[in-house]
C-alpha cells in the first residue's frame, strides 16, 4: 500500500515561495491502477516525481508498506520502476539489447535467469516480434512499451509512468493503458500513470485529479462525473476552472470519506470478478526476510563492465561518431607530418678563433648558425605544440558530450540503482583506451617522418598527459553542464584558448603568463617535452625563442596530473548531482 500524508512541495520564486503541491493526501492499495490527471501545470508530474523521490518534499511523508519513507529511507531500487516522458534507451541499440543491459545493471543473476527475465519483459510488453529492431526505428507506442519493459526486469512493486501516452494516436493510447492495467494485476503491483488525456478513464481503478497543486478528487471513474456534476469526462477540465485550487481542496476534504468507501468496495469487487485473490498487505515481521530474498543489485565491477560494454556497442553502431574518431586519428598526424622536413637541419658549430679576432668567414658562419637555429627552433617548437593542440582537440571531442549527452538516461539509471562510481569508472576506462590509441598513434606516425630530437619516451609521455588532461577536463565540464550543447561550447572555448594563452607562439607578458599558464594544459605538455626531452643544443635554441618561464619537466608532470585529477573530481561531482528536466 502507498499512502501520502500531507504532502507539500515548495520552491523558491525570487523573494517568495511557490507552492507546487499543497497538503496532498491519498491512499492506493496493492493491485491498483491509478491515473493522475489535471490541466497543464497543475502538479501531476511534480507529484509523481515526489513519489519517486526525485522531488524531495517540503513537508509530509509517503508511507510504503507501513514504512515512512521520509524517516526510514527511500524506496529500494528493486521496489520501484519509473518510466519518464523521454526515451530511456539509446537509439543505436536494439530492443533486446536495451532490455538486456537494463537487466544486467539492475539484477544480479546467472545467465539463464537473465535470459528468462529478458524474454518475460519482451512478452509482457508485446515486443517479442521486434526484439531485433533498433530503437531509432520504433514508433512512439513501441518506445513507450520498451520503456516499460526496461523497468519490468526488476519486477517493481510500484510502477510510476509519466505521460507515457502523450503524443500517441487513440488506438496506441488505449493499447498502452490496457497494458498498464494488466501489469497492475500481477503480483499486487501498484501502477500510477500521469496523463493529460481524459480518454480511456474507464480502464483505471481510480482517478486522482489535481488542480493548482491541490488534490480535487480521488475516486472511481464511475463516481467522477457525479462528483464534478458533468455528463462526461471531457467536462471535468472546464468545471475545474470554475473554482481555484484551494476551494476544490476544501470541497474534497468534506466528501472524501464516502468516495473512498465506494472505492474500497469496487477494489474488492474487481478481484472477485476476475477470480484473482485480493493482494494482502505484507506483514511487518516478514518484510525484512522478503527484502533479503530479493535479487541484490550487481556490484561495482559488474555494473562498470556492463556500462563499458554498452558504450563500445554504441560507438560501433554510431557511424558518424566512429568515422569522426577514425578520421581524427588518421588525418591529424598527417597534418603534423606535412611539416616533417622543417626542423631536421643540424645546427652548425662556430669555428674557434685562435687570435681572438673574427674574420669575415666567421661572421658568415655565425649568421648561418643564427638563421639555422631560428628555423630549427621555430619548427621544433611549432611541431611539438601542433601535436599537443591536436591531441587536445581529440580529447575535447572524446568527452565533451560524454555525460551531458546522456544526462537524462544517466539520471534514470541512477534512480534504478546504478552507482555514480561505476558510471564514472566506465567512462574513465573507455576514454583511457581512446587516449592511449590517439596519443601513441600520433607519436608513432610523426616519429616515422620526424624523429624526435631527444628522449622520445619523454615526449610521448607528455603527449599522453596532454590528451588525458584535456579529456579529463572536458569530461568534468560535460558532467557539470545541464545540456550537451553547453558542454560542447565550453569545451571548444577551452581548446581554442590553448594556443594563444600558452605563450609558445606569441610571448605573453610575464604577469599574464603567470596567471593563465597554470590552466593551459598545452603549455605544460609543450614545456615538458622541451625541458625534459629535447637534446641540449636544440633545447637551448628553442628556449632562446620562447621561454618556458618557471617550468621544469617534473613540475609539468605534476601540473598535468593535477589537471587530470581536477577533471575527474569535477566529473564525479557533476555525475553525483541530480539533474532532471
TrEMBL record:
Keywords: ATP-binding, Membrane, Nucleotide-binding, Transmembrane, Transmembrane helix, Transport
GO annotations of cellular component type: membrane
SMART domains: AAA (SM00382)
Pfam families in the cross-refs: ABC2_membrane, ABC_tran
Compartments reported by the entry: Membrane
Source organism, top-level taxon: Bacteria
Keyword Transmembrane: yes
UniProt xrefs under InterPro entries: AAA+_ATPase (IPR003593), ABC2_TM (IPR013525), ABC_transporter-like_ATP-bd (IPR003439), ABC_transporter-like_CS (IPR017871), ABCG_transporters (IPR050352), P-loop_NTPase (IPR027417)
Protein name (database record): ATP-binding cassette domain-containing protein
SUPFAM superfamilies in alphabetical order: P-loop containing nucleoside triphosphate hydrolases
Residue stretches making up the ABC transporter domain: 2-237
Transmembrane helix in keyword set: yes
Molecular function as annotated in GO: ABC-type transporter activity; ATP binding; ATP hydrolysis activity
Transmembrane residue ranges: 322-340, 372-393, 456-477, 489-508, 550-575
Major subcellular site: membrane
Species of provenance: Candidatus Akkermansia intestinigallinarum
Membrane topology: Multi-pass membrane protein
Amino acid at each position: 500500500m502507498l499512502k501520502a500524508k500531507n504532502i507539500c512541495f515548495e520552491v523558491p520564486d525570487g523573494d517568495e515561495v511557490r507552492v507546487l503541491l499543497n497538503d496532498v493526501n491519498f491512499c492506493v492499495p496493492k493491485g491498483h491502477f491509478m491515473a493522475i490527471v489535471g490541466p497543464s501545470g497543475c502538479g501531476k508530474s511534480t507529484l509523481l516525481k515526489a513519489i519517486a523521490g526525485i522531488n524531495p518534499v517540503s513537508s509530509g511523508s509517503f508511507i510504503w508498506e507501513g514504512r515512512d519513507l521520509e524517516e526510514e529511507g527511500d524506496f529500494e531500487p528493486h521496489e520501484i520502476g519509473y518510466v519518464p516522458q523521454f526515451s530511456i534507451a539509446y537509439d543505436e541499440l536494439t530492443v533486446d539489447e536495451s532490455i538486456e543491459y537494463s537487466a544486467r545493471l539492475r539484477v544480479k543473476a546467472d545467465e539463464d535467469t537473465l535470459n528468462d527475465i529478458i524474454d518475460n519483459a519482451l512478452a509482457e510488453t508485446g515486443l517479442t516480434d521486434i526484439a531485433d529492431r533498433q530503437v531509432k526505428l520504433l514508433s512512439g507506442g513501441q518506445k513507450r512499451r520498451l520503456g516499460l519493459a526496461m523497468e519490468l526486469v526488476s519486477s517493481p512493486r510500484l510502477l510510476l509512468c509519466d505521460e507515457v501516452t502523450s503524443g500517441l494516436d487513440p488506438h496506441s493510447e488505449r493499447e498502452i493503458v490496457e497494458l498498464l492495467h494488466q501489469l497492475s494485476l500481477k503480483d499486487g503491483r501498484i501502477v500510477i500513470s500521469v496523463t493529460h488525456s481524459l480518454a480511456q478513464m474507464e480502464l483505471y481503478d481510480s482517478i486522482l485529479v489535481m488542480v493548482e497543486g491541490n488534490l480535487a478528487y480521488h475516486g472511481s471513474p464511475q463516481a467522477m462525473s457525479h462528483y464534478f456534476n458533468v455528463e462526461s469526462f471531457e467536462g471535468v477540465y472546464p468545471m475545474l476552472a470554475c473554482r481555484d485550487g484551494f476551494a476544490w481542496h476544501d470541497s474534497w476534504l468534506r466528501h472524501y470519506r464516502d468516495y473512498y468507501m465506494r472505492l474500497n468496495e469496487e477494489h474488492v469487487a474487481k478481484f472477485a470478478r476476475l477470480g484473482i485473490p485480493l493482494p494482502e498487505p505484507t506483514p511487518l515481521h516478514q518484510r525484512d526476510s522478503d527484502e533479503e530474498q530479493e535479487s541484490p543489485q550487481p556490484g561495482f565491477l559488474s555494473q562498470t563492465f556492463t556500462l563499458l560494454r554498452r558504450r563500445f556497442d554504441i560507438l560501433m553502431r554510431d557511424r558518424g561518431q566512429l568515422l569522426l574518431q577514425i578520421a581524427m586519428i588518421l588525418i591529424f598526424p598527417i597534418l603534423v607530418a606535412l611539416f616533417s622536413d622543417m626542423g631536421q637541419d643540424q645546427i652548425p658549430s662556430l669555428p674557434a678563433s685562435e687570435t681572438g679576432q673574427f674574420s669575415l668567414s666567421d661572421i658568415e658562419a655565425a649568421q648561418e648558425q643564427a638563421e639555422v637555429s631560428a628555423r630549427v627552433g621555430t619548427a621544433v617548437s611549432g611541431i611539438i605544440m601542433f601535436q599537443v593542440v591536436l591531441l587536445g582537440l581529440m580529447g575535447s571531442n572524446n568527452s565533451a558530450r560524454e555525460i551531458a549527452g546522456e544526462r537524462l538516461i544517466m539520471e534514470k539509471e541512477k534512480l534504478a540503482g546504478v552507482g555514480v562510481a561505476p558510471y564514472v569508472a566506465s567512462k574513465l576506462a573507455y576514454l583511457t583506451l581512446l587516449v592511449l590509441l590517439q596519443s601513441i598513434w600520433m607519436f608513432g606516425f610523426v616519429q616515422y617522418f620526424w624523429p624526435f630530437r631527444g628522449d622520445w619516451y619523454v615526449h610521448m609521455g607528455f603527449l599522453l598527459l596532454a590528451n588525458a588532461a584535456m579529456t579529463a577536463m572536458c569530461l568534468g565540464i560535460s558532467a557539470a553542464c545541464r545540456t550537451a550543447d553547453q558542454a560542447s561550447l565550453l569545451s571548444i572555448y577551452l581548446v581554442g584558448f590553448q594556443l594563444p594563452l600558452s605563450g609558445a607562439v606569441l610571448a605573453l607578458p610575464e604577469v599574464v603568463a603567470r596567471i593563465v599558464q597554470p590552466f593551459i594544459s598545452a603549455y605544460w605538455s609543450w614545456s615538458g617535452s622541451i625541458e625534459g626531452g629535447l637534446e641540449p643544443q636544440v633545447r637551448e635554441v628553442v628556449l632562446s625563442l620562447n621561454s618556458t618561464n618557471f617550468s621544469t619537466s617534473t613540475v609539468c608532470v605534476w601540473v598535468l596530473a593535477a589537471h587530470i585529477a581536477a577533471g575527474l573530481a569535477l566529473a564525479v561531482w557533476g555525475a553525483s548531482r541530480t539533474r532532471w528536466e
